[in-house]
Design goal:
Length: 456
């Protein structure tokens, strides 16, 4: 099946400039010496926040020659991506024929409140109208440059020379969408989804194995081993403080294994605690077939965060078969109770060579075009060079909170799928993250029966 249509809205290259104060004021701090941040709002999406670097502006009344007064340029930090919004077909259809406006409110001071009072002061607002039809087939810039800021709720900012520099771009970002037909530990089928149409593409097999199984170089599915079970039964204390040996194998429709996620580092309770600590996380190895053997492709670590909100932290690294160090593609956390999304998105910055006086490129790597046929019997048909770097949106998967039934939904950017094995590897990552939520469950709590039935 074809991929599903998505549109990404990218906001970045932020800078702000104020007029220089002609007289020093002791009643407060001039905005150009205060930290600035902004709220970025888009209808039906959560509000996002970003900091804004400052650019000093030369006063019009100050004396300087044209040769000595240079045009302000943003700080180097302004080249970073500030926010992004991902619109699926439901969003796109819902906004069709309706006005859609990106709203940015700029503040000085600190976020939050101090002693019950709002510590931030509104500087101004900027609105950018969006017409999604212009970005259905190619990237489109809705804003790229300096704009005057105004505050609709106050007349004090009207005519102000305070300005915000920003770049707003929308681009098509088609993705393959997969959905588990059940919880990963129940060995479900995986469907490719497009609208209301579902087509089976993979099957999963969950089981337990010993570390020696990973040393098996055969491309056949590693056997489920119970050699380590007697030792667990004879030492209940170790069993209650350790979870290990979980594995899930992804098969194509012919029954051939095309990806494996195997727990290689046990999830162990830290001393004097009933949780997996960040200093000693559990880990999964994501394996792909290659040259008649299993080859490590990625590593997923997970742990239970202790401070702040109760969440499960994770880090995903891309491994190399050379001496090149592993590259971290994702590092974040998912709320342990309400769940969230596991995301690999390496859209991080605009090209360093760009400035507010030039066009910008967020380096997302999205490609609306494609070449058919992957040369591997794949039905996905979006072939790219096999040694391509991971750029832009890579993948995301839904993650349910503890105690809730999960059916992960996985989105993968088409530029990262050249064959069936590529898609299977991302499905294996999604399964490993879902299982990590249970592996990071407090050791004082019971595991679901599907994760304990082989141990009895």
């Amino acid at each position: 099946m074809d991929p599903c249509p998505f549109i990404r809205i990218l906001i970045g290259d932020l800078s702000i400039k104020f007029p220089v104060a002609l007289k020093p004021s002791f009643s407060g701090v001039h905005p150009s010496t205060s930290p600035c941040f902004c709220k970025i709002k888009l209808k039906n999406f959560p509000v996002q926040f970003a900091t804004i670097p400052l650019v000093p502006q030369v006063s019009r009344t100050s004396s300087c020659s044209s040769s000595s007064c240079s045009v302000p340029t943003p700080d180097a930090n302004s080249q970073s991506l500030a926010a992004s919004f991902n619109l699926n077909k439901t969003h796109i259809d819902g906004f069709a024929g309706k006005p859609l406006v990106l709203k940015i409110s700029v503040y000085t001071g600190r976020r939050g409140s101090t002693c019950g009072f709002n510590a931030a002061k509104l500087v101004g607002k900027v609105s950018v109208p969006l017409d999604l039809k212009k970005a259905e087939s190619r990237p489109f810039f809705f804003q790229n440059g300096w704009v005057d800021m105004g505050d609709n709720n106050s007349s004090t900012n009207k005519g102000s020379s305070s300005q915000l520099h920003l770049c707003v771009r929308a681009e098509p970002d088609p993705r393959f969408v997969f959905q588990f037909d059940g919880e990963p530990e129940c060995s479900p089928q995986v469907f490719q989804v497009q609208g209301n149409v579902k087509q089976p593409v993979f099957t999963c097999k969950f089981g337990f194995r010993s570390s020696s199984d990973l040393k098996n170089s055969s491309m056949s599915e590693p056997s489920t081993s119970r050699n380590w079970l007697p030792s667990l039964k004879t030492n209940k204390d170790n069993y209650s403080k350790e979870r290990k040996g979980w594995s899930i194998t992804i098969h194509d429709l012919s029954g051939s294994p095309v990806a494996v996620a195997s727990m290689v580092t046990p999830f162990v309770a830290s001393p004097g605690s009933d949780r997996v600590s960040r200093s000693n996380p559990g880990a999964w190895l994501i394996l792909r077939p290659g040259e008649g053997t299993w080859k490590p492709w990625g590593r997923l670590e997970a742990w239970r965060e202790r401070c702040g909100s109760d969440s499960v932290g994770y880090k995903f690294e891309l491994l190399s078969d050379t001496s090149t160090p592993a590259a971290t593609l994702a590092s974040s956390a998912v709320n342990a109770n309400s769940g969230g999304k596991f995301t690999i998105d390496v859209t991080s910055s605009i090209s360093p060579a760009n400035s507010p006086n030039s066009s910008c490129d967020f380096g997302s790597g999205s490609r609306p075009g494609s070449r058919s046929g992957s040369g591997s019997g794949s039905d996905f048909g979006f072939a790219l060079p096999c040694h391509m770097s991971y750029r832009g949106f890579v993948m995301s998967s839904t993650v349910e909170g503890l105690g809730k039934r999960s059916r992960p939904e996985v989105e993968v950017g088409v530029q990262h799928v050249t064959c069936t094995e590529d898609a299977a590897a991302f499905v294996a990552v999604a399964a490993a993250m879902d299982l990590s939520m249970d592996a990071c469950r407090l050791f004082s709590k019971k595991l679901p029966k599907e994760l304990t039935q082989l141990r009895q």
